[in-house]
Write a structure and sequence with these properties.
Blueprint (H helix, E strand, L loop, with lengths): L2 H11 L1 H6 L4 E3 L14 H17 L9 H16 L3 E9 L2 E10 L3 E11 L9 H21 L5 E8 L7 H8 L3 H6 E7 L10 E2 L4 H13 L5 E2 L9 H5 L5 E5 L8 H7 L22 H19 L9 E5 L3 E3 L6 E7 L10 E9 L5 E6 L5 E6 L8 E7 L8 E9 L6 E10 L1
Parallel strand pairs: 4-5, 4-6, 6-9, 7-8
Antiparallel strand pairs: 1-10, 2-3, 3-5, 7-9, 10-18, 11-18, 12-17, 13-16, 13-18, 14-15, 14-17
The chain binds tryptophan, zinc ion and calcium ion.
Length: 434
């Protein structure tokens, strides 16, 4: 629930609830869109790669569609997700006469009508263990999912992760998933993020040139760490995002290069050598030795940045701390001043030079009213002094230079009615600290 909704729900629930909270409702929880993006531990991503390597080694050296190493890879990823509270589904399909598997993992919560999905193909070719292609993407999104659980992240959008089978045979698993997704479910997918080969040993930093918002989200991350990127051109449509893009779902993704050769300009930009980005592409040497740790680390963190950013609130997230008292306080006709109090806690140092003071007073003649903000030390800031004549109600946000006041403490809205006949009450009083 949004903060404002929660506050009005409280206000509407009962006077007893408000009273039990002494009238003040501190509302300091950061909205989902403002949640800090966690760092993805690359050591954990690498451990998943070591485990996938062991699975290949124990199963004839690969994790290919229709082979024992593939199903063992699915079981491995699924067990990790089940243990931390994901809702997992294994989707079966048949290709080349053998059973294939997709693994879908939903994180409970978020708006079911707005889904952000990250996916990677989990199968290798038959010639090797497929650690860069595509243990790398699979392990990174696995660790991102585990980090969602570890941090208790509750995004406003719904999060889903997918591990695809038989990508190497023509995007078979992801096509099967999309083809079996009803139109109404497709419409809920607001973004699909694909990660296929993100730890190439001689890496480039490529961002898919598809949905502009997704593309920019990745670029913002990389420019923030000072790493130049280029648009991915080594075969657009050569990975599972194409299955989603084909039915109109916004897509994006990251890639560190396959068999194409790094140019000298790219060597200048990124380091490495003017050889293939991945000299072990689709071969037996695509092992845990075929990974550039820096590329794996940066891309894993870029994935988290995108997942966290894109799943948060779509509207501008309020960054401030809000304190509000929604308890009604009646203002006696031509009588003594009354106050509504909010207790500000957890704000370091002084109040800001532009403290926003939300005032909602229901009254039939605002020319009767004097309204002041009273700081915790008793300093008085006048907000309204009998102007406005016979107009009804004050419902407005004042900006007060409160930089001379310590932020924490009991702030009061003081209202006095100085003329007979018309009456009213304080409806709500709200302070927003930037
Ligand atoms: N998907 C390809 C594979 O698994 C690799 C690849 C080539 C790729 N070009 C790409 C992946 C561009 C993503 C983007 O063999
Ligand atoms: Zn691949
Ligand atoms: Ca009056």
């Amino acid at each position: 629930m949004k903060l404002s909704a929660r506050l009005s729900a409280l206000a509407g629930s009962s006077a007893l609830v408000i009273g039990a909270l002494a009238g003040a409702v501190p509302a300091t929880a950061a909205p989902a869109g403002a949640a800090a993006v966690p760092d993805i531990p690359v050591a954990s991503v690498k451990q998943h790669l070591t485990d996938l390597q062991s699975i290949a080694t124990a199963n004839g050296g690969n994790r290919a569609h229709g082979r024992a190493g593939y199903k063992a890879s699915i079981d491995f990823v699924k067990a990790k997700l089940d243990a931390v509270g994901f809702t997992t589904t294994v989707q079966q399909f048949t290709y080349n006469g053998t059973t294939g598997y997709n693994l879908i993992a939903d994180w409970p919560g978020g708006d079911a009508n707005q889904v952000i999905m990250a996916g990677s193909h989990l199968d290798s070719v038959t010639s090797g263990p497929g650690i860069n292609d595509n243990g790398s993407g699979s392990a990174a999104i696995l660790e991102a999912a585990l980090t969602v659980a570890r941090t208790g992240y509750q995004p406003s959008k719904h999060l889903r992760f997918g591990w695809w089978g038989a990508e190497e045979l023509g995007l078979v698993g992801s096509k099967h998933y999309v083809n079996n997704l009803p139109t109404t479910e497709r419409a809920k997918l607001k973004g699909y993020l694909n990660f296929d080969m993100i730890g190439s040993p001689n890496p480039g930093y490529f961002v898919y040139d598809d949905d502009p918002t997704i593309e920019q989200t990745f670029k913002t991350y990389f420019s923030g760490i000072g790493v130049p990127t280029e648009i991915e051109t080594e075969g657009d449509g050569r990975s599972d995002h194409a299955s989603f893009k084909n039915v109109g779902i916004p897509v994006g993704g990251l890639f560190t290069g396959a068999s194409r050769v790094k140019t000298s300009a790219q060597v200048t930009k990124w380091g490495g050598t003017a050889t293939a980005f991945d000299r072990c592409y689709h071969s037996s040497c695509d092992t845990t030795a075929n990974i550039n740790d820096t590329a794996l680390d940066r891309n894993s963190d870029a994935i988290a940045h995108a997942i966290w950013t894109l799943s948060g609130t779509s509207t501008q997230p309020p960054t401030g701390k809000v304190f509000e008292n929604t308890a009604d306080v009646s203002v006696p006709d031509n009588g003594a001043a009354v106050t509504s109090t909010v207790d500000v806690t957890g704000v370091t140092g002084n109040a800001p030079a532009s403290l926003s003071v939300g005032v909602n007073i229901v009254h039939t003649y605002i020319g009767d009213l004097v309204v002041d903000l009273v700081a915790p030390d008793g300093s008085v800031y006048n907000l309204h002094n009998r102007s406005g004549g016979s107009a009804d109600n004050i419902n407005q946000t004042y900006t007060v230079n409160a930089s001379g006041e310590v932020a924490n403490g009991a702030w009061k809205l003081r209202v006095q009615d100085k003329a007979g006949a018309d009456t009213g009450y304080i409806n709500s009083f709200k302070l927003t600290f930037p």
